């Protein structure tokens, strides 16, 4: 039986958000789909976007599962319905959106919330765009593994507001017109910036960095795997603090540069464009619009082609001077025509020119753009996007929202629809037309076609009835547009089910140039169902060539994913093997020198506990079977504990014939065989200890798959192999791949081991003594010792098991094994009890003999010293 095939890791760990303030956090109502919040307190928009599946999450999860799992029941972890396609690539699907972190009352109209002073002038309503960012990521990982995580993006404002337990930033997007400036200044005083940095809008992975983005602010860098927030990113001081970074940077065709722009309504330059090369270095940066206090256009997206960067100056702009006339600075101007600015990135094609559209327009999201030559031989730029003409500016307002939406839907004007612009670079004309009638947003394409002609786009279809009735933005279907034929495909999520932005993921074995050969991945929330007592969202995978046939796979997540903003696909990291397990302070670890019997002060209690266990077990397994001391003439290449003059201590042993043969072969070859024994155990269980002691006495290496209490990773497999439900598995459990035998329970395992590996012997009286093993382990695993061997933390799963040279009776080795057990890290234990020939092997390998000694092939680290090993394990494998 191939064990690796069943290597199932499924677990859920809830990491409650750390809030240092004293007030309780969970005053949001239980999740359901109704609108909870009184409009007079929260405004129409605020009430809508804090309710239903816009309700913020309180918890952060890490959940694992194997890809081959196809079960109708789960254990609060991930569940797969259908199967993830074999040619689905490794990588990470991630999604981000606003998720306000404080209790609900903080998001009332400013002044009604706790600790909010309004001075009777500074009112403002919560706006969806101003909520804290949260990322929701699903890793399609090595070893056929899935991992789901959601994490707050811990920006400066997140930390500052968390510390005081209240909002430091007043609303701006939905501030009352005349109070916008007061609120902005108050934000500067209380929070250190005019605008809150939420990093809640979009994600990009470029040059090894995963960045969470928000308009008008610098990016925030996240650890690509753990999703922990690393800090604000200015690309090694290359990006000046007054240059913001768009939420929608684009990888340019041909060069692979990441092209960006930024608009800054406060400080000049009010707009800038630039690019990063593939090493993450700023390649160029061009400030524009430097006239102070002039304000700027609200630009959320832009376009790139092979030669050009194209800015869109829509009719939504921000002019601070409007404050002095009692108006909000952000206004949509029906009398201001939109226009495109075309800027050459090719020094051979100098161009910086503006092209006027026919009327006032607004676009939040472009689909794509490319260069073409028309029938007259003239160069054109073709742009596709969702034109919406101020629709969202009004639809997300605090007051009179639903009336406005109802009216606009009835008039069928300014609604977001797929549109095309053709800019003639020769005669300066812009031809415009709508391509489809569907009301959509969040359009996406195969990202490999950014900047070159493409055929397909995928977008979310807006459920207009819900927009009208509840003022909520929800997508009831995915629409695939075919610009070549004008056709479309639709996948409807079904009644009460709503999708989020979809992401195209190329098939791992895709045909070159085949634009839709891949998958559409998106989160979907089912508002009808409550699973296992709580609402859960799912990730669906659609065949991009045939979306209307529905998902090929549904991955049920451990919690909801609130409706958010934008998605990202991050392919498998190119240097995955190294980067995944990159260790901080590599040299620091490899330079650790062994010291005899040294320990840290904080280890004293744990050490005394393990010493107590050893005494109660009469130092069983301190010696290999048949150990006896002898004296021989000194041999420098062979391990000896004591040397005196020309003589040294020789430690004889009596091992089984198979082990003797193996030892001789290993000694001649200079490396150790992979063990044929696999043990599922709990470090602090008395019965398990007896088996480990026997393995040490028989000098048998084994792969240990720790099964701490409350964990799933190896217990799931043990239960499967024993053909019992999870929770009914019996430990210790041993599998011998050499004889293809699996044995349950210590008594039978001991009989088997001695019979087979000590040539028909009966178990030693020491390991046969069950009573002292139970007493010894109960003395170790007490409440005061925080229940050692209980799973406490989510950990990475190593590609290859670690190797630990140790023996059962050593208190220092026990500390390392306890940590490995707690972290569910599989390891090969190479026993080195007194008399073991393996002591000489370790002497040859490490130039000295001391245990514990750990080798981690995943990182190349070899390390002595229990305290350093434990520190290393925490550093390397803890999330
Ligand atoms: Fe966007």
TrEMBL record:
Keywords: Iron, Metal-binding. Signal peptide: none annotated. This is GST N-terminal domain-containing protein. Belongs to the carotenoid oxygenase family. The keyword Iron applies. The lineage of its organism: Eukaryota, Viridiplantae, Chlorophyta, Mamiellophyceae, Mamiellales. GO terms for molecular function: carotenoid dioxygenase activity; metal ion binding. GO terms for biological process: carotene catabolic process. One of its GO terms (cellular component) is chloroplast stroma.
